[in-house]
Amino acid sequence: MRAAPATLETIDLTIRFGGHVAVDRVSCAFEPGTLTAIVGPNGAGKTTYFNLISGQLEASAGRVRLGGEDITALPAPLRTRRGLGRAFQLTNLFPNLSVQENVRLAIQARRGIGLNFWSIASRDRALVDEADAVLERVALAEKRFQIASSLPHGDQRKLEVGVLIALDPRVYMFDEPTAGMSVDEVPVILDLIREIRADRSRTVLLVEHKMDVVRELSDRIIVLHNGRLAADGEPADVIASPVVQQAYLGVEA
After folding, report:
1. Does the residue 197 lie in any domain?
2. Which segment, 29-38, 182-191, 239-248, is predicted with the most confidence on average?
């Protein structure tokens, strides 16, 4: 019997900026029901790798497959429709819309309603109720009518995770989801990631510098260094490697 394809796979994925190779022939397969942490020093290529997967950057070489389908030529919006969900290192919201409208539009996009149905959708009780349920999960229900740009940074990060949840993707991609958040705000995001990870039909990729978060959440760690795949394995094995600790994680062996 032929094995089912990986949810997400990169094959020799590469991008060059002039003479600099930022991501160099990275091949990885990501299975459903797993959370993979992507770590490495600043400039290692982690966010660039994410940008290649999600379509923000065009690869110089290599391929990206989602559920066995080659999506390398697809732009970012079509990759989102196929089931790739991305939360960015910097917030990526509709700043002049309300908190509730940001989430509601993500639900509309998932359902294929589209922005042309704005006025109709705003009266659709089911859409509003679903948006409010998401906002409850990200602890923003009391701020549903606030304009997104007026939220403090931590709440904007929570809202972006809420938008991602509303899209209900097959693959969740989190790029430093707790960056800039206060100590009190971080547990909300981590609890949401744990909840998503518990759904064994979903695949989670996480770029994160906080090694305590990586240790707790990840099923697997891959290490990038100078754009290349330097290590790939179970968390205990990767973290315990003296070479990885010294050269890639900045930890004294």
Report:
1. no
2. 29-38
Number of domains in the chain: 1
Q: 57 to each of 24, 46, 52, 60, 208, how far by Cα in Å? A: 14, 13, 5, 9, 20
What would you measure as the largest C-alpha separation in the chain, in angstroms? 60
Separation between Cα atoms, residue 238 and residue 221, nearest integer Å: 7
DSSP category for residue 230: E
* DSSP states of 171-225: EEEEESTTTT--TTTHHHHHHHHHHHHH-TT-EEEEE-S-HHHHHHH-SEEEEEE
* Residue 204 covered by a domain: no
As a whole number of angstroms, the distance between CA 192 and CA 186 comes to: 10
The DSSP 8-state label assigned to residue 48 in this structure reads H
CATH number of 241's domain: 3.40.50.300
In a domain, 234, yes or no: yes
Beta carbons within 10 angstroms of residue 158's beta carbon: 25
Which pLDDT does position 157 carry in this prediction?
A: 86
* Residues in contact with 3: Cβ distance below 8 Å, sequence separation at least 6, in sequence order: none
DSSP 23-45: EEEEEEEE-TT-EEEEE-STTSS
- Give the pLDDT confidence score for residue 69 in this predicted structure: 94
Please give the residue range of the domain that contains residue 240.
1-77+209-253
* pLDDT value, residue 2: 43
Mean pLDDT of the chain: 86
Domain contains 100: no
**Token pair recorded at residue 130:** 């679903």
* Strand 20-30, strand 228-233: pairing: unpaired
